[in-house]
């Protein structure tokens, strides 16, 4: 009831003024302070009087409070003509927007009532026409006049944010006061009247990390050095309150999820100071030896790490590459190792961020180093011949059992196991040779004929006594040295003819010979006539040397 009383009083104060003139209508806009006021105060109902003066109708605006829910229709105002003497001869007629439906007029008293609750946010004003006619003749007594009923705002709408939820990003470690996002609320109430739509923003949740500007709704960072690696997401609740934020105002809230985005504020760090790795001396170059990983809590390119070997006695033997998928440094073998030569290596490996933000250079250096110790493991290696190949010589026709030469192989492993030799039988099908399994001496077991086979190219195996799968093979070329064991032979059986009375010294045949032995034991040949014709004066032989 108290509230109702206040509203009625408010309505009563919103009255209508009238000025007069002799002819026609004069309009005046008195605003909220009215120069002439005829307030009629009936019991419990208030209204305004639209007055007729000698100068005709002067209208003003009627005001009716919105959302009025009293028991009786609310009195909007009252039409009154100066020529109305109160005898009931004048009839007031209302037409226009809402006439007869929302607004009804008592045609005798001129009182206008609103029959329905009005909502300013739905419709803020109605244009109506007032007319005064003679009740008996219906003759207009005044020219019709338009007037407006304005629906007076009350604060019946809370502020509403444009979005129920907002999402925003701001880089971690931003300076205090960095703008994050602007949230905006709207209020359906009349922004031109009172404070019903005057909004003030405040932060309900999210302090001390963020703040909001009361007038603009701009959210800013409020704490220095916020660290994404410590906390990435913040839930902020912003309130908008009307009535300028004062008590009794209506409010609305919105949730803002703020995510800190990453900056490169953390250097990579190895979790340990030494890595131990091992690799077999049998490993081939390019083989992976092991991996190291420096941890970087940053993400994306801020966490990218590249690895390099910056020092150590293994710089020539090993290399490191970066596996960008796993962010690991991959140590690989560059050259073949030999356990018997060097049993361990040491590397100094550096991990460095690829992208460095100059703003955070003081958090650096953005790199770290670690020692990688690599042990070379002894591999079970096959025997090794002292030479990659052997060439021996043996005279043809030499007695079976003649020594051709000696091969020698060694087990390179620390175990240095004993070696056994054998001839690859596929390379000595005729079995010209044998080898002493223990000392590697090769001997003939047949006489050799250079003219039949000048080279015997065979292969010799060496195996470890206890690990027969560890086998090596070496080529052994045996050259058969020539012995002059072949007489020259005439190339053909010669037959020659010579005419009688041939001249003396006439050449009538040339003969030649060849020899199976090699050049040292072959030509030049010496030709001579056999003794039985050596004294025959009729023929001579000349050596064509
Ligand atoms: C055997 O080896 C020697 C020396 O490597 C080579 O000159 C010769 O041509 C080889 N003979 C055969 C039949 O392979
Ligand atoms: C030894 C020999 O046969 N000599 C002969 C050489 O030629 C003359 C003339 O034809 C002969 O009379 C020889 O007997
Ligand atoms: Ca980093």
TrEMBL record:
GO terms for molecular function: beta-catenin binding; cadherin binding; calcium ion binding. Residues 1-27 form the signal peptide. The keyword Cytoplasm does not apply. PROSITE patterns: CADHERIN_1 (PS00232), CADHERIN_2 (PS50268). Residues 81-161, 162-270, 271-385, 386-490 form the Cadherin domain. It comes from the Eukaryota. It is found in: Cell membrane. Its main location: membrane. InterPro entries: Cadherin (IPR039808), Cadherin-like_dom (IPR002126), Cadherin-like_sf (IPR015919), Cadherin_CS (IPR020894). GO terms for biological process: adherens junction organization; calcium-dependent cell-cell adhesion via plasma membrane cell adhesion molecules; cell migration; cell morphogenesis; cell-cell adhesion mediated by cadherin; cell-cell junction assembly; homophilic cell adhesion via plasma membrane adhesion molecules. CDD domains: Cadherin_repeat (cd11304). Keywords: Calcium, Cell adhesion, Cell membrane, Glycoprotein, Membrane, Metal-binding, Repeat, Signal, Transmembrane, Transmembrane helix. GO terms for cellular component: adherens junction; catenin complex. It is a single-pass type I membrane protein. The keyword DNA repair does not apply. This is CAD11 protein. The lineage of its organism: Eukaryota, Metazoa, Chordata, Craniata, Vertebrata.
């Amino acid at each position: 009831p108290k509230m109702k009383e206040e509203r009625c009083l408010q309505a009563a104060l919103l009255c209508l003024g009238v000025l007069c003139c002799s002819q026609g209508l004069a309009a005046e806009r008195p605003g909220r302070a009215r120069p002439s006021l005829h307030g009629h105060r009936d019991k419990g109902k208030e209204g305004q009087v639209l007055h007729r003066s000698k100068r005709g109708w002067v209208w003003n605006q009627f005001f009716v409070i919105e959302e009025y829910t009293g028991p009786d229709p609310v009195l909007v105002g009252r039409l009154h003509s100066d020529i109305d003497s109160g005898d009931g001869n004048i009839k007031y007629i209302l037409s226009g927007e809402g006439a007869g439906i929302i607004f009804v007029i008592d045609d005798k008293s001129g009182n206008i009532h609103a029959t329905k609750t009005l909502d300013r946010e739905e419709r803020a004003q109605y244009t109506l026409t007032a007319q005064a006619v003679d009740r008996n003749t219906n003759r207009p007594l005044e020219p019709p006049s338009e007037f407006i009923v304005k629906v007076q705002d009350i604060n019946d709408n809370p502020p509403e944010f444009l979005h129920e939820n907002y999402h925003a990003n701001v880089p971690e470690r931003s300076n205090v006061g960095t703008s994050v996002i602007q949230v905006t609320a709207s209020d359906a109430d009349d922004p031109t009247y009172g404070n019903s739509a005057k909004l003030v923003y405040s932060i309900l949740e999210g302090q001390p990390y963020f703040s909001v500007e009361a007038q603009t709704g701009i959210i800013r960072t409020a704490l220095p050095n916020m660290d994404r690696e410590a906390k990435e997401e913040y839930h902020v609740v912003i309130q908008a309150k009307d009535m300028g934020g004062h008590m009794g105002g209506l409010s609305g809230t919105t949730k803002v999820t703020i995510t800190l985005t990453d900056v490169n504020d953390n250097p990579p760090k190895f979790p340990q100071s030494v890595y131990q790795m091992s690799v077999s001396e049998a490993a081939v170059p390019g083989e992976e030896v092991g991996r190291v990983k420096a941890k970087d809590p940053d993400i994306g390119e801020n966490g990218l790490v590249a690895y390099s070997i910056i020092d150590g006695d293994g710089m020539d033997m090993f290399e490191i590459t970066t596996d960008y998928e796993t962010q690991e440094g991959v140590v690989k073998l560059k050259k073949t190792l030999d356990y018997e030569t060097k049993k361990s290596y040491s590397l100094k490996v550096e991990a460095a961020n690829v992208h460095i933000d100059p703003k955070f250079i003081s958090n650096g250096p953005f790199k770290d180093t670690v020692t990688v110790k690599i042990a070379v493991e002894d591999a079970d290696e096959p025997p090794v011949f002292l030479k990659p190949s052997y060439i021996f010589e043996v005279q043809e026709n030499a007695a079976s059992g003649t020594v051709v030469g000696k091969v020698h192989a060694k087990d390179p492993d620390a175990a240095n196991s004993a070696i056994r030799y054998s001839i690859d039988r596929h390379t000595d099908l005729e079995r010209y040779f044998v080898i002493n399994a223990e000392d590697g001496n090769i001997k003939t077991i047949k006489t050799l004929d250079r003219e039949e086979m000048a080279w015997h190219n065979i292969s010799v195996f060496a195996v470890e006594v206890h690990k027969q799968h560890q086998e090596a093979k070496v080529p052994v070329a045996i050259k058969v040295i020539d012995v002059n064991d072949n007489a020259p032979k005439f190339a053909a059986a010669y037959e020659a003819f010579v005419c009688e009375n041939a001249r003396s010294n006439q050449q009538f045949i040339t003969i030649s010979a060849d020899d199976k032995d090699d050049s040292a034991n072959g030509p030049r040949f010496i030709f001579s006539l056999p003794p039985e014709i050596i004294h025959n004066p009729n023929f001579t032989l000349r050596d064509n040397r």
